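Bump. Still looking for Transcriptional regulator, LacI family structure tokens.
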Amino acid sequence: MAKASTIRDIAALAKVSKATVSRYLNGTLDLPQETRRRIDDAVLALNYRQNSLARRLSIGSSEMIGLVMPDVANPFFAELADAVEQAAFEGGFGLALCITRNQLAREALYLGWLDTQHLDGLIFATNRPDDGSLGKLIGERSNIVLIDEDVPGVDIPKVFVDNIEGGYLATRHLLDAGHTRIAHVTGPAALFTVRERLAGYRRALDTAHIPFDASLVLFGSYERRFGQTAAAELVARDDAPTAIFAGSDYLAVGMLETLRDCGLDVPGDMSIVGFDDMEFASLLMPPITTLKQSAREMGSAGVAILLAMLADHSPAPATGAPVQRLPVRLIERASVAPPRKKPLSNAD
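Sorry for the wait, here they are.
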């Protein structure tokens, strides 16, 4: 096997010093065009491959940040990844995509990359309840920005949307259409976004002087399959609701499938409001009324905070780390109508 080329070899061929080659390749030295050409030609001629570990040690930075998230197939996270990559690139950083599949072992692995200088910082998103293990791992490290979902006990910069306002607007919209029996289908009860959206739902009911009915709140997961089973359970009841506030658009998709299979019309028999405004929401039949939270704005805001931390070369404050809230807004489409006069029943 041929011996790998070194900076010494490049310097000899280009007729410059090793220090000049090293600083030029690290981007910290501006050279005359002719000198740059000689070094570039030598790099190509000798098929030189820079040692990334040596570079990290020499400049104290990997010039890479990571985006830790549960999966990339979900359109919300795909849009988030696109926004984070663009913002990182514009800030002079590359992006490592770190998919966890909601496994603590994977989350721990990527957090460990901060310790080895594989990454300078992390944009971190999780959507599973934490038993304290993840919070402990994050709490020991700096240069991390948490987005979308909270991790209890972690005092680091965070970017969230106004989930309470979103839950309120969704439920208020159904109330304004004339519904008084409104179900709420949502994710795991321990999740931060679930608790906040539920608080908004309850606030809207309270302002309309409608008693809260815990039997109309179904906790599960932010997944299409749970939307299917939840809708089936609700329409089978003798006192079925006339409207549903879904905690995510994926849940709404599952509900539409079940309602269609049951021969029920949306919004004629059941009104639905979702949450997220994923791209497919406007393509469904009917198009879904939903609360828009911008994954793109969330990703860009998270990167801006992280790059500011890295530029300052200091960790976030030990206490009182900033929390940025992004607004949500109601997107009205065709999935909400006044309630039908005849309640749903198994005989329908």
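The radius of gyration is 26 Å.

Edit: fixed formatting.
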